[in-house]
Specification:
16 helices, alpha/beta, globular, binds pyridoxal-5'-phosphate, three-stranded antiparallel β-sheet, about 40% helix, Aspartate Aminotransferase, domain 2, seven-stranded mixed β-sheet
């Protein structure tokens, strides 16, 4: 088979600023060993997130110019709404400024003390919004999803047996919503199978609990279903996406992911009463219902992006580029989550740095080493992000200690990715020199964004 090439040409470029390893040592110190506190100008290859970092197409930029900025009833809103409905089939479409704004609205209405939101794995902002409402978020990931090094086709699946057990234990009346995150971002960008979504739907119907999709990477998940699930090889990805949403009662979406937009999101649902409540909140927090938290031009960019993201040449290139980096690392013996996820490569920091105890944040230590070695910025998805404290202020570690290298959509070429592999392998060969970190300052919610750390000397 020939090389799968980037299915686009580059019309506009941005320079990368080069700096030296010595400079990066100082820069990381100034950023308190938290790459979120670095200036992006000081980063060579920025794999912090695939969120809002996509390169928009010439068509999307044309849409930006066409965007109509009327306060109410803009044609851009109707194009946006039609694009969302075409894929999801959900009648009520509510634009928001990004995914977490959708979450904030939804959980302010559905959440509250004593309630449980059950998911395959909740993303960090989703969990934070649930907890902020007083409710509790519960992850019921399938067994395969708990073992980063063991390959399985659908490691994002929910444990349906555990779901049923949980509902019986806590009572369906205390569970306002079941959520399936596709792909499972915090669990390694791993896909969820159609069979699993159908099974979860069945349980939800049995207990009259609505099912929402956290749909940020619905197109990538649909492509995995096409590639890996029996009976879908010849089904167009758009049809697969439609089938996924057909089992749902609603969705939250960040258009900064699988819609190639730099900002935006939406909330969509079937229940008109819930939609009314959401719009009432939207008006006081985001904006009028036909623009939400967005400009008309953003609505245009999202509408076009939602079409482009389902082009199969794009999805083939997209998923292959993640697999390409993963394969290079596997060949070099670097411990990575297997198989490759949809939007990112996940290093298994526990296996990478077995000499660093979990309460010294091996994932964060690895993130720092990658930056110093090659100016590559990734993010820890482990105990800094998800860790809690017990009564004695001892860390209750996260299930996994991962470092996520998220690949922005349509931004980096194969040589950039080759360089990233070289940097990781160099760090791996010198891994015994890496030391642990301690937290010197943190905030109570989403602490990984702003935490200050220091090396353990
Ligand atoms: C990014 C993301 C969100 C939140 O979206 P924002 O646009 O960043 O607010 C929610 N869920 C998942 C799975 C995500 O990846």
């Amino acid at each position: 088979m020939r090389t799968i090439i980037e299915p686009f040409k580059i019309k506009s470029v941005e320079p990368i600023n080069f700096n030296t390893k010595e400079e990066r040592v100082e820069l990381l110190k100034e950023a308190y060993f938290n790459p979120f506190l670095l200036r992006s100008d000081d980063v060579l290859i920025d794999l912090l997130t695939d969120s809002g970092t996509s390169a928009m197409s010439s068509n999307q930029w044309a849409g930006i110019m066409r965007g109509d900025e009327s306060y109410a009833g803009s044609p851009s809103f109707f194009r946006f709404k039609a694009a969302v409905q075409d894929i999801t089939g959900l009648p009520d479409v509510i634009p928001t400024h990004q995914g977490r704004a959708s979450e904030k609205i939804l959980f302010s209405i559905m959440g509250g003390k004593g309630k449980y939101f059950v998911a395959n794995t909740l993303f960090d902002t989703t969990r934070a919004n649930i907890e902020f409402s007083g409710a509790e978020g519960v992850d019921l990931i399938c067994e395969e999803g708990k073992h980063p090094s063991i390959p399985a086709p659908f490691k994002g699946n929910m444990d349906v047996v555990a779901l049923k057990k949980f509902i019986v234990e806590k009572g369906a009346e205390n569970i306002p919503l079941v959520i399936i995150t596709i792909t499972n971002n915090s669990g390694g960008g791993q896909p969820v199978s159609m069979e699993n979504i159908r099974a979860v739907r069945k349980v939800c119907s049995e207990y009259c609990i609505p099912l929402f999709i956290d749909a940020c990477r619905f197109a990538e998940n649909s492509w995995f279903i096409k590639m890996r699930e029996a009976g879908y090889a010849n089904v167009p990805v758009k049809e697969i996406a439609r089938e996924i949403f057909s089992y749902s009662d609603g969705c939250t979406m960040s258009a900064k992911k699988d819609a190639f937009a730099n900002i935006g999101g939406f909330l969509a649902m079937r229940d008109p009463e819930l939609a009314l409540k959401c719009r009432n909140l939207l008006v006081i927090t985001e904006g009028f219902p036909t623009y939400g938290g967005l400009a008309g031009r953003d609505l245009e960019a999202i509408a076009i992006g939602l079409e482009e993201v389902l082009e199969e040449s794009y999805l083939q290139y997209r998923i292959r580029s993640i697999e390409y980096l993963t394969d290079k690392l596997i060949d070099a013996g670097v411990p990575v989550m297997q198989p490759a996820g949809g939007h990112a490569v996940y290093l298994d920091a526990k296996a990478f740095l077995p000499h660093i105890p979990l309460d010294q944040y091996p994932g964060q230590a690895l993130v720092g080493a990658l930056y110093i070695e090659g100016g590559v910025r990734g993010v820890e998805i482990g105990s800094l992000m998800f860790g809690k404290y017990d009564e004695a202020h001892q860390l209750i570690p996260a299930q996994l200690e991962l470092v996520r290298l998220a690949i922005p959509r349509r931004v980096y070429t194969q040589s950039h990715i080759d360089y990233v592999a070289e940097v990781i392998i160099e760090v791996f060969n010198n891994r015994n020199d890496i030391t642990g970190l301690k937290i010197i300052e943190e905030s109570p919610l989403l602490r990984h964004f702003t935490a200050k750390l220091a090396p353990i000397s």
